[in-house]
Amino acid sequence: MIMNMNWPSRKRLLGFFDERKRKMETRQSLQPRVILHVDMNSFYASVEQSYDPSLKGLPLAIAGNPKHRRGIIVTCSYEARAKGVYTTMNVGEARRLCPELVVIPPDFDKYRLASESVFNILRTYTDLVEPVSIDEAYMDITHIGGLTNALAITNNIQQRILQELDLPCSIGIGPNKFLAKTASDMKKPLGITILRKREVGQKLWPLPVIDMHGVGKSTEEKLHSIDVYTIGQLANCDEGKLKSLLGKNGIRLRNRANGNDSNPVDPEAAAERKSVGSSTTLSTDLTRLEDCLKTFQWLAEKVSLRLERQQLAGNVLMIQIRTADWVNYTRSKTVVNPIYQAEAIYEEAIQLFKKHWNEEPVRLLGITLSNVIPIEEVYEQLSMYNYEAHANEEKMERLVDSLQAKFGEHLIHRGKNKVNKENDH
User: Fold this and answer.
1) What percent of the chain has pLDDT over 70?
2) What distance in Å separates the CA atoms of residue 35 and residue 184, rounded to the nearest whole number?
3) Shortest CA distance to 128 belongs to which of 281, 119, 86?
4) 197-206, 296-305, 351-360, 411-420 — most confident range
5) Is 397 a catalytic residue?
6) Which of 271, 293, 405 is nearest to 357 (CA)?
7) For residue 174, pLDDT beyond 70
8) Can you give the pLDDT at residue 388?
9) 155 near 235, Cβ under 8 Å?
10) What does the alpha-carbon distance between residue 121 and residue 153 come to, in Å, rounded to a whole number?
11) Active-site residue (options: 48, 79, 136, 348)
12) Could you give the C-alpha distances from 55 to 60, 61, 102, in angstroms and in order?
């Protein structure tokens, strides 16, 4: 860990990262950048259809427990979406909307293999490929064709993935990562869309802020509190007001609303942001719970600060414990939605600690968050990493079923939350 290094070593390491970023920016800025965002269409369902062509054209859903009517849908095909089925809907409700719905369990080994095959195809064009999830990646094609051949290269990539892997994708083309990402969402499935900076005012500014990549429900509500309702209003909002409301992220969002994003395509970024953590060796062994909790609070704040600096969030939390006898052990848990705030990190960490600590004297404590993603991409996503966290929801639904059977459906009801219907895995 960087924090455990002496200052000269840390300085050299940080200097290495700064120099690498500078070289990438120099390499990618000698001429107008051309960035692609490759986004696989209904990825899990498409993989299943490629393995079993008889599923093509059918309304198809992938669910954690397809035999149980309360099983949660992980993703669904476009044919299913046309019938009103969406991700996070339960199987029973989906089948009421679409009686002919085909529901199968997920096979994540297939999806990982297909994902790597897609990325391997992308890397035959350029080494500037940055995977950002199992089904999407950025590419910088500035130096292999640039503006002149962007459409031809993009069409070739799309057709190769379709012909070699039998998987559809949409690709956005833009002068930066933000505009390329935004463009890829404009036409699905099998879309190719160019979004130029000069088109931002016409195509993006009239849209509500929630439609902008990087703006979630919480940020939308905060922006509404200062009368910012459209992307255009965000683009022209006072910087000081945005910074006061949202911190550095407010300035970043304003820049992007104006079509600006200087982040380079970084092939090593995914590997670097696998985890963020902090640990401390204690000067005296801790034997009291309250002392351990104070240490975890301090660690949670340190980890949160590091995540904030890197604009990351993670959904796999691990605690490290070393006893006075130098016995090391770790315990971890997966949360449904990625976290980055100190309070949430602390609460999850102390729950793990209280559950597993056997009151032995403690010499070292640590917290690490892994499976991290950019904060701007945080939303409730049923992905290969966290869909199983919804298993508890199924248990609750079964409890409700049994209570309704005993006391009557009119007396027992579940509360319902609004869910995000958009997920393209």
Assistant:
1) 78
2) 11
3) 119
4) 197-206
5) no
6) 293
7) yes
8) 46
9) no
10) 12
11) 136
12) 7, 10, 8
